[in-house]
Amino acid sequence: MTAPRRPQRARDPEARRAALAAASMEVIAENGVGRTTHRAVAARAGLPLGATTYYYPTLDDLIAAGLRHALDGLRSDLLAWDERLRDATDIAQTLTDLVREYLADRRQVRIEYELCVAAARDTALRPLAEAWMEGLPEIVAATFGAEASRNICALLDGFILEALVTGRELDAPRLTSAIRRLAA
Amino acid sequence: MTAPRRPQRARDPEARRAALAAASMEVIAENGVGRTTHRAVAARAGLPLGATTYYYPTLDDLIAAGLRHALDGLRSDLLAWDERLRDATDIAQTLTDLVREYLADRRQVRIEYELCVAAARDTALRPLAEAWMEGLPEIVAATFGAEASRNICALLDGFILEALVTGRELDAPRLTSAIRRLAA
DNA sequence: ATCGTACTTGTACGTTCGTACAAGAGTGGA
DNA sequence: TCCACTCTTGTACGAACGTACAAGTACGAT
C-alpha cells in the first residue's frame, strides 16, 4: 500500500513536443491567444499538466510553439498553391478558388489572424507574423511581379477578413475581377 | 475607532459608466480581449473593483462596452473622413492620407482588429464587427459605387493589416495607385 | 426630518492560473 | 549489474481571477 502505482506511457519525447504544439494550436484557434493555458493544452493533448512545462518552460513558449505549428501547416499549403498556380490558365480564377478552399477550415484562418493581432501587440511574435505575411506574395510574385503581388495579397487579406468577421461565404466573382484589375 | 471611515467621491453614474468603458477599451488595446480583467479595467479607470461589476454585471459586458466605445470613436472619425473625401479633388490620394493618419494611433487600430478576431470566434460580437466593417464602404460608395468601394476597403484592410504586423509605415504611393486601379 | 433608493466601497469566496518540484520509471553505457 | 541520465507524473503553492455581498453614504421624494 505504500508504493503509489504510476503507470507510465511509452517514451517518445519528440512526439510529445509535436503533440503539445498541435494541441496548443487548436486551443489558440478556439479560445484565442489570451485564453490559452497550460491546462487546456495538456487536456487537449491528453497529457499531464507537467508535460507542458517540461517541454515548453513558459506559457509564452507553449503559445509560440502553437503558432509556429500553424505556420508550418500553412507553409505546406503554400507549396500546393504554388503548384496549382503554375498549372493554371486563368490565374485570377485559380487564386479565388484557392482562397475559397482556404476559407473552408475557419480554424486555420482564425489562428493566423490571431497571430497578426498578437504580433501587433507583442514584438516578439513579429518575425513569425512577417514570415506568414510574406509567404504568399513570394509565390505569386513569379506571375504578377513584386508590386502587383503585394497589392493582390493585401486584397486577399481584406476579403478573408470580411469572410471571417461576417461568417459569410467568399464573394468569388467580385474577388476574381478585382484581382484582374490589380494585375493589369 | 469603531466607525470605518470611507470617504466617497462625488456621484456621477454616467461618467463612471463612460470611464469604465474607456478604460476597458484601453486595456483591450494593450492586452487583448483575452487578457482583459475586471481588476485591470478598474485600476485603469481609477475606480474600485466593485464599480466594474456594478455597472457591467459580467466580464463579457465590460469587454463589449470597451469595444462599443472604440467603435463610437471610429464612427466620429468616419464623419470627418466623409467631409474630407467630399472636398477632395484627388480621392485616391486623400484616402491614402486618411489611412496614414489613421495608422498614427496604433492603439485604435489594434483594438479594431482585435474586435475582428474576437468576432470570428464569438458570434455575439459579430453585429458589432459587421457595423465596423461596413462603416467605411458606405461612405466611399458615394464616389466609387458599391462594388468598387467594397474592393477598395478590402484593399485598405489588407494594407492596414500589413502595417500593423510589421510595424512599418504605410507604403503610400503603392496604395494610391492600387486604389486607382480598383476604382477604374 | 425621514425614508427609500441608488450608488460606493472593501472584502471575501471558491476557482483557475503559471510554475516548481519531488518521486518514480525507463534506458543506454560502463 | 549498476549508475547516470532523461523522461513521466502527481501534487503543491502563491497569485490572480470572476463574482457576490454586506455595510455605508448621498440624495430626491414626501
TrEMBL record, chains A, B:
Start and end residues of each HTH tetR-type domain: 14-74
Matches recorded under PROSITE patterns: HTH_TETR_2
Database matches in InterPro entries: Homeodomain-like_sf, HTH-type_TetR-like_transc_reg, HTH_TetR, Tet_transcr_reg_TetR-rel_C_sf, TetR_C_31
Domain of life: Bacteria
Keywords associated with the record: DNA-binding
SUPFAM superfamilies to which the protein is assigned, alphabetical: Homeodomain-like (SSF46689), Tetracyclin repressor-like, C-terminal domain (SSF48498)
Pfam families linked to this entry: TetR_C_31 (PF17940)
Alphabetized GO MF terms: DNA-binding transcription factor activity; transcription cis-regulatory region binding
DNA-binding region coordinates: 37-56
PANTHER family: HTH-TYPE TRANSCRIPTIONAL REGULATOR RUTR (PTHR30055), TRANSCRIPTIONAL REGULATORY PROTEIN (PROBABLY DEOR-FAMILY)-RELATED (PTHR30055:SF231)
Full protein name: DNA-binding transcriptional regulator YbjK
Source lineage: Bacteria, Bacillati, Actinomycetota, Actinomycetes, Micromonosporales
